[in-house]
Amino acid sequence: MRGLPVPDPGTPPTRTSTGYLWWLVRVQASTVVAAIMFGVVWSLAQALMPAAIGKAIDLGVTARDTGALVLWTGALLALGVLQAYAGIMRHRNACQNWLGSAYRTMQLTVRQATRLGATLPKRMATGEVVSVGMSDVAHIGDTVDILGRGAGAVVGIVTVATIMLTTSLQLGLVVVLGVPLLTLAVTLLIRPLHKRQAAYRAEQGGLTTRAADIVTGLRVLRGVGGEAAFAARYRAESQRLRAAGVRVAKVDSLLEATQVLLPGVFVALVTWLGARLTVAGDITPGQLVAFYGYAVFLMMPLRTLTEAVNKITRGHVAAGRVLGLLRLTPELADPAVPATVRDPGAAELVDPESGLVVAPGRVTAVAAARPEEATAIADRLGRYRDSDAALDGVPLRQLTRASVRDLILVADNDARLFSGRLRDELAPRGADDERIAAALDAASARDIVDALPDGLDAQVAERGREFSGGQQQRLRLSRALLADPPILVLVEPTSAVDAHTEARIAARLAKARAGRTTVVCTTSPLVLDRADRVAFVDGGRVVAEGTHRELLDRVPRYAATVTRGEDG
């Protein structure tokens, strides 16, 4: 079997769900064709077994011909061996098709989520994204997986119908007419099932979003006494989801019962008619046994066909959900002809909207009268929102977003620690222990690692929940320093630590970033005092520049902002 996932999932069509599913079939055509071929052989071998049994009875047992009995028994054994081999190969290729379709779809959704960045949470709820990754990819895999068995079921039905028509026109017509009617009867239940599944899917996505919000904000909810209110809302929504699930289950159970009842009645009818024809002498006892075998055999391909209709319908709905994500476009588009920056480490970074000019190779602090003003500047400098910000005279909008991310790293307090080994979390691109130790020292985070039983090899839980807020902030700062970008923008990097730790970080930051451009958005006097230059922002504009002490002496509004006092 080929390795999964594939290096490049490709670029699918996004106009229709049918087009996307057909694209999945095309990109793994070899295994899909193999699954269909082995499915056909598997079904044919099983369909011909009743004929071999009938011949053994008529030519061997009834005629008392040992040679014929051995011949047809051997044919039955050969069919069994062929069916076993074809079944193994069909299942193997079907599994490859399921995994290939599911993994490829997951790769596409993850790639799209990465491409969208901050646009994704604005356009699609968290629960909806989780549902796409958890359930929709499985339904899409089921759609491609069923093709092998579905094709085999069609060929099996056609083969049996042909044999029965040539043996007995009456029984053959029963099969030829009965199979489409049974399939139609079951198909009528698919449409209401599809509608109820879509409603259930919407409720499920909403509830998942609610759960994610509650878990994320649980500490805040407890602090403001809102835990009970949100728990009550979650209970109410979960009951609506349960009711939607019951509605789905009602139709689904009716569908399952129909898939058992109708083929059973059909088998009974075929057997009754065959017995009457045998008594009348129109068919032989061996043919009667064969007809019974055909009728029993037909239960399986009939059930497979209804299963195929059900899975393809679900896959069609799931593909629509996936395409809803794939059709989203980033708020910030890459230019048709990207520009380049010759030496970003020696280039000025300018934000015309605020008037901020960041000198290369120095630590520039931005102190804003209102925190949101500093955050807006950081977003423009990192091109998380469109603006006229420029690097070395080149507008950032003329660079690709990937280039901007390589040149400018914005590290704020919305960043998260991910689960996994701490070493890999701090240096995802790899770094030796000496570099990691230096970054930990600069962020005053060495004590955090030393307290862990496994040190850098300790496993970090989801969102780093085993660490306090201040510990997470210091570890995130270590990660940003290890990334070592040409330009680093830090937003309130010491807001959650005590004064002694803050003083150590402020004293070590400039050394850790020597020769690199660093912007620190903060109102901490300890950090501001260590900056090469401070820009004071009020009303969204830089209104004063200088060292921290110079601004304290000549700008009362700045002094009031950084000392938490009131200006006169």
From TrEMBL:
One of its GO terms (molecular function) is ATP binding. The keyword Membrane applies. Residues 260-564 form the ABC transporter domain. It is a multi-pass membrane protein. The chain crosses the membrane at residues 20-45, 66-88, 169-190, 260-279, 285-305. PROSITE patterns: ABC_TM1F (PS50929), ABC_TRANSPORTER_1 (PS00211), ABC_TRANSPORTER_2 (PS50893). SUPFAM superfamilies: ABC transporter transmembrane region (SSF90123), P-loop containing nucleoside triphosphate hydrolases (SSF52540). Residues 33-314 form the ABC transmembrane type-1 domain. This is ABC transporter ATP-binding protein. The lineage of its organism: Bacteria, Bacillati, Actinomycetota, Actinomycetes, Micromonosporales.
